[in-house]
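A quick aside before the break. I want you to see a complete sequence-to-structure record at least once, exactly as it would be stored in a machine-readable document. Don't worry about memorizing anything.
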Amino acid sequence: MVMSQGRGNAIAVSVLLMGMLLHCGNVWAATYTVGDAAGWSFNVVGWPNGKTFRAGDVLVFNYNPASHNVVGVGKHGYDTCTAAGQKFQTGSDKIKLVKGFNYFICGFPGHCASNMKIAVNAM
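That is the input. The structure line, written in tokens, reads:
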């Protein structure tokens, strides 16, 4: 009887520890403000350089929604400035990165061509 009670406690502790480890994955996610103090603006294309991003990190795009937006696109949309993707337009968008390349452009005419776009590779 005492031995089975010990196994039960060990199982309960193991389940508790696994739950805590799974929960801690979100604790390590970082939050980045795109463009730093300047925000989401023209010539932000080089902003990701030198930074290390991970899947689950959050990008915050701050901008005037009357003048800009954020569109999540694929590589083709990024290369050709084609705004066919999920559009964000709150002026303070928070977007969680997925593993691999994440591409974002401004969908307002001419803005992407003025380097208002970023490509972020999340590990």
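Two observations worth writing down. The radius of gyration is 21 Å. The chain is about 25% helix and 25% strand. We'll return to this after the break.
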